[in-house]
Design goal:
By secondary structure, the protein is of the alpha/beta class. The protein folds into three domains: 166 residues, Ribosomal Protein S5, domain 2 (2-Layer Sandwich); 215 residues, Rossmann fold; 73 residues, Helicase, Ruva Protein, domain 3. Helices cover 38% and strands 17% of the residues. It has 23 helices and 18 strands. It has a five-stranded parallel beta sheet. It has a four-stranded mixed beta sheet with strand order 1-2-4-3. α2 crosses α3, α8 crosses α21 and α20 runs parallel beside α22. The model has no long low-confidence stretch (mean pLDDT 88). Bound molecules: adenosine-5'-triphosphate (ATP) and magnesium ion. Adenosine-5'-triphosphate (ATP) binds next to α9. The site of adenosine-5'-triphosphate has 15 residues, from α9.
Length: 512
């Protein structure tokens, strides 16, 4: 007897339908799974057999052939356990076969028949309607993820027996839905470290504010203990909230890497702040592995990638950042296929000016030879540096400043300026698929960053004297656009350009 059940699998963060066909025939009892299953899928037969037997049904002692169509793409993981069990029970008339027709089912089974959470439910549910299906059965723990998707009916189940009873119409299940608007309203940022803890460092704080307001990349350079790490850790407290669309694309990536069953909300509501250690590999940063998985650059999508002790990362690891920094996405090619993942993040890097750290410190002598300094700096290549919009010196804080009773400006007041500047940008780019000044292409820069004569003159001087590249020229204009937005100015004037050029300290050092 033949039966069918519908499920889904992932290619990168995009889902595709998997139609599972079952054929039960006479002959020696055996289960054969075809359609390029990996080990976890092959092992489904043992889990399914026990789950069916332990849920009060009898596993058929016949020859069962299961085909996962399309047969030419590799299927992985345990998401097919539940649909396989349902299909077998339909083929043996425990469930009316037509009852499964309109449903997509995903879920892992325990030997006792309970349904366990799986990864990637959000991307599977997100474009379910586009794939011509409206109803999805998911493990109860994954119901929040699927529940945020509009226009579909989500049926959470906690056991195979519950699922079978539902399809037999013995146990109704209310479709599960989450009120997204309420979710976003309630998502107040929790107690993050606050900028008011940082004494002095006004220049660095200003650079951070500009960088966050426009989504620009930032490099902080300063002696040990000057507060670079401290400043960076406070960036999450001033980043604006994500929109639903931004949150959805971030959540999809996190859903396939970690699963979101631990998340109370089903969506990630705060922008990611990723700070991988400097021993990270290429694959860890960019993504990859035998079956390509997102790396830190994609996990930081729409958020911040913080690389502390920048020159300590292997040079070849840093070089792979070039593509995502330019394109906002990353393509990973492996034998099993290539996938493109979003990777539009704000890079924040921190470093000392030399190996001993005190080159720029007026109070301490630097012990490094010029060659040592050069070698240290060249760990960060010119092309990579070119992609970093703001370079800021973070000097040691003076005793008076450090001991001052005056608190620094609070994160909430900085954030309100950042939010305002972001609102200006959202309005400017309405209808385009970009959100921040940093996202602008050359064409956008020409359109939105017009300059007066005085500014043009300044840019020309910088171009010739600092020997900046055409890319850096555009980046200066984008930063100037953000500075103008922060000061509610529609036009970019010389003051804005001058400040943007001022924040390219490393260009000056490189031309020394
Ligand atoms: N401006 C400041 N205001 C208040 N505390 C500060 C400031 N700068 C540094 N500190 C104190 O010094 C500690 C060390 O600072 P931090 O780790 O940020 O230095 P760093 O610049 O990252 O140094 P390194 O180059 O060694 O990594 C902080 O945890 C904080 O307690
Ligand atoms: Mg540090």
């Amino acid at each position: 007897m033949l039966s069918y059940c519908r499920s889904a699998a992932l290619n990168g963060i995009d889902a595709y339908d998997v139609n599972i066909e079952f054929d039960i025939s006479g002959g020696l009892p055996a289960i054969v799974i075809v359609g390029l299953p990996d080990t976890a899928v092959k092992e489904a037969k043992d889990r399914v057999r026990s789950a069916i037997n332990n849920s009060g049904f009898k596993f058929p002692e016949k020859r069962i052939t299961i085909n996962l169509a399309p047969a030419d793409t590799k299927k992985e993981g345990s998401v097919f356990d539940l649909p396989i069990a349902l299909g077998i029970l339909a083929a043996t008339n425990h469930i009316p076969p037509e009852a499964l027709n309109d449903y997509t089912a995903v879920g892992e089974l325990s030997l006792d028949g309970s349904v366990r959470p799986v990864k990637g439910v959000l991307p599977i549910a997100a474009d379910l309607l586009h794939r011509g299906c409206k109803k999805i059965m998911v493990p109860k723990e994954n119901s929040n993820e699927a529940g945020v998707v509009e226009g579909i009916d989500v049926y959470p189940v906690s056991s195979l027996a519950e699922s079978v009873a539902f399809f037999r119409k013995e146990h109704p299940i209310e479709p599960y839905r989450i009120d997204i608007e309420k979710l976003f309203e309630e998502s107040a940022s929790s107690d993050l470290p606050d900028f008011s803890d940082v004494r002095g460092q006004l220049n660095a704080k200003r650079a951070i504010e500009i960088a966050v307001a426009g989504g620009h990349n930032l490099l902080m350079i300063g002696p040990p203990g000057s507060g670079k790490t401290m400043l960076s850790k406070r960036i999450p407290s001033i980043i604006p909230k994500m929109t639903f669309q931004e949150s959805l694309s971030v959540s999809k990536i996190h859903s396939i890497v970690y699963g979101l069953s631990q998340e109370k909300t089903g969506l990630i509501l705060t922008r990611p702040f990723r700070s991988p250690h400097h021993t990270i590999s290429n694959a860890g940063l960019i993504g990859g592995g035998s079956d390509p998985k997102p790396g830190e650059v994609s996990l930081a999508h729409n958020g911040v990638l913080f690389l502390d002790e920048f020159p300590e990362y292997r040079r070849d690891v840093l070089e792979v950042l070039r593509e995502p920094l330019e394109e906002g996405k990353v393509t990973i090619s492996r034998a099993s296929g290539s996938i493109t993942l979003p990777a539009n993040f704000m890079l924040v890097a921190a470093m000392n000016p030399c190996p001993c750290g005190y080159l720029t410190d007026p109070k301490k002598d630097c012990r490094c030879s010029p060659l040592m300094v050069l070698r240290y700096r060249t760990k960060i290549s010119g092309p990579l540096l070119d992609r970093i919009d703001l370079h800021v010196d973070v000097p040691s804080v003076s005793y008076e400043e450090f001991k001052s009773k005056e608190m620094g400006e609070s994160s909430s007041s900085i954030r309100s300026r950042v939010e305002e500047a972001r609102a200006v940008q959202r309005k400017r780019f309405e209808g385009l698929s970009i959100f921040t000044n940093a996202d602008m292409s050359h064409k956008h820069v020409r359109k939105y960053c017009t300059t007066d004569e005085e500014s043009e003159e300044l840019l020309k001087t910088a171009f010739i004297d600092l020997n900046i590249s055409a890319r850096a020229h555009d980046r200066i204009l984008k930063v100037a656009r953000t500075i103008a937005d922060l000061s509610h100015s529609e036009t970019i004037n010389a003051e804005h350009i001058a400040e943007a050029i001022h924040f390219r300290a490393m260009d000056r050092t490189y031309t020394d």
